[in-house]
Amino acid sequence: MKESEEMDGNVKAEYETELNIQECGIKEEDAEEELPHAEVIDIFQEGLAMMVQDPLLCDLPIQVTLEEINSQIALEFGQAMTVRVCKADGEVMPVVVIQNATVLDLKRAIQRYIQLKHQREGGIQHISWKYVWNTYQLSFSGEKLESDDKSLREYGIKNRDEVVFMKKLKKK
């Protein structure tokens, strides 16, 4: 009895699959055809480019990552905030972190921002972040953000506030 029920289930599944293929206007040979990886990537990138034209996502780059889309959505729902990180050369990096982020979360967000920027521009492949954080520091309103486990709110950092990325002064 089980064999006939199982067979009926398989026949039904095949029929439904064929019906779906016919409804979509796809020929049976095309349904089983595999696309090369490069073509799938191109199709995916085209879809992303169309999605990025949405008013909520329009300020994202064409080669957007899922993480960037999720961050933008979190910003729209008030679950995240943008911290503007100012470098000594005048460049401002808009970094997105969650509302209750710590200094360590901000540092990791800066790392992701810079790594994505370098990937897109074809820049430096590897950065020693241990060296960076030993040589540079973050400060807000003249106060150094020294404690990695302290929340940004404890330092008084809110949405769209500016944090300075500056070289540490050597102690004598």
Automatic annotation (TrEMBL):
<dbReference type="GO" id="GO:0005689">
    <property type="term" value="C:U12-type spliceosomal complex"/>
</dbReference>
<dbReference type="GO" id="GO:0000398">
    <property type="term" value="P:mRNA splicing, via spliceosome"/>
</dbReference>
<dbReference type="InterPro" id="IPR029071">
    <property type="entry name" value="Ubiquitin-like_domsf"/>
</dbReference>
<dbReference type="Pfam" id="PF18036">
    <property type="entry name" value="Ubiquitin_4"/>
</dbReference>
<dbReference type="InterPro" id="IPR039690">
    <property type="entry name" value="SNRNP25"/>
</dbReference>
<dbReference type="InterPro" id="IPR040610">
    <property type="entry name" value="SNRNP25_ubiquitin"/>
</dbReference>
<feature type="domain" description="Ubiquitin-like">
    <location>
        <begin position="81"/>
        <end position="172"/>
    </location>
</feature>
<dbReference type="InterPro" id="IPR000626">
    <property type="entry name" value="Ubiquitin-like_dom"/>
</dbReference>
<protein>
    <recommendedName>
        <fullName>Ubiquitin-like domain-containing protein</fullName>
    </recommendedName>
</protein>
